[in-house]
Amino acid sequence: MSEIDDARVRTVHEGTATAGPVLYWMNRDQRLEDNWALLYAQQRALVSGQPLVIAACADPARFSSNERQMSFMLAGLIHLQKKADTYGIPTYVFPGDTVKRIVQTVRHFAAGTVVTDFSPLRKDRENLARVAEHISIPVYEVDAHNIVPCRTASDKREYGAYTIRPRINRQLGRFLTEFPPLRPHPHRLSETLTAPSAAIVPQTISPLPSGSEAAMAVMQRFMSSGLTRYFEHRNNPVVDAQSGLSPYLHFGQLAAQRVALEAQRVGDRDIKPLEAFLEQLIVRRELSDNFCLHTPEYDSFEGFPSWAQASHLEHRGDPRSYLYSPQQFETADTHDPLWNAAQSLLVSSGRMHGYMRMYWAKKILEWSATPEQALVVAIDLNDRFALDGNDSNGYTGIAWSIGGVHDRPWFERDIFGKVRYMSESGCRRKFDVKAYIASAAVDTAGVA
Ligand SMILES: Cc1cc2nc3c(=O)[nH]c(=O)nc-3n(C[C@H](O)[C@H](O)[C@H](O)COP(=O)(O)OP(=O)(O)OC[C@H]3O[C@@H](n4cnc5c(N)ncnc54)[C@H](O)[C@@H]3O)c2cc1C
User: Fold this and answer.
1) Is 66 in the pocket of ligand 1 (CB under 6 A)?
2) What's the start-to-end Cα distance of the chain, in Å?
3) For a pLDDT cut of 90, what percent of the chain falls above it?
4) Residue whose CA is closest, atom 42 of ligand 1?
5) pTM
6) Which domain holds residue 419?
7) Which one of 145, 162, 187 terminates a domain?
8) Is 186 inside any structural domain?
9) Mean pLDDT across 425-430
């Protein structure tokens, strides 16, 4: 029996099966262990007695020119490449245009099958469709990012956490299982084959330790000290109670499924923090993929629910007390020291606490001429500076903050209409704003 649930696998392109290596186009899930897409690729290669090859692309088009993300990703791939060698799986990293490189690699190795990992994001889906158009061999997509595969959890856009939660919870028993191991691969590429000429040896200085081992270390640290504080303090930006795992999960250096299994193992005596953490890690994260998969306009006004669109239209002409340009937002040049502190941290470190992210995006709405402009500014800053940017969680979090996605209508007020409002005084009631601003000043010291 196959070790990989069929529900994870989608045939993108039937193609004509030919004898040849299996190519795993590693896109969103950049890890060797705990990776359903790589396991599936290996299974196909073992059954057909073929070599297995990995290709990954460092394509700036996927990163909104976010150099911090590019360095972090390349650093992770350096570790991965070395380790893949020990499994007998040659791994190549290519610069530039993803479609061109993957098609070239298929031809170079005369590959017989392509396997890639699932992404709901527009650019990734376009790339996949274009690769499939250019080659005649079978292409498979495997959901290695979600615990309950996104297409299985739901076949439509969900209204909110309350509608997707029962669907996911019903299926966790089937999907939240231990992973089989990746095996040393017995079938090697012919020695006469050289590396594709465009392949590069990644060289980079990462903004923080990168790769699966670094990700595991961050996870273990959270399991031993952060998880117990999670329920009570996760919304307090001056307490270190969140996991800090989002960059690792974004690049798939760590499987969310591994994190969930580990949290269940260590957290079973204290149910409240465990439940609160799994709600974010599983339900909210998978809801974001659901939103992006089923909402072609996930990053525009048209993606907002109809009540929020109507309400924004009614409040379009409301006077704004403050109006800032994209440049002023970027340089943290607003009247609000709390907002400036959060934005400065984003630029200097690529990080912003989850609670501050909501405040940050809502204030961009309040201080922009239109919700459309606010959306453009928030997405641009998040994607260009955040280490976990260019992610379905980002598009969904911003759409939640500015456009009421997955939320309900609230009391009507100026500018926000019925979209939930957040205030600086509300932040003061929740946490020590002065301490946050002071710590941000320390963290950004020395950054021009
Ligand atoms: C305006 C805005 C922008 C955001 N941009 C991003 C982004 O670019 N990339 C990103 O990964 N997340 C984003 N989020 C979601 C969330 O804020 C971050 O995932 C979280 O703060 C990351 O820190 P952590 O890993 O310590 O989270 P933890 O609280 O430790 O949670 C563990 C994991 O659960 C998932 N998660 C947590 N909160 C959410 C959430 N609200 N929605 C979906 N998944 C969640 C993440 O994968 C996270 O790494 C954004 C939220 C908002 C409101």
Assistant:
1) no
2) 58
3) 87
4) 284
5) 0.97
6) 301-444
7) 145
8) no
9) 96
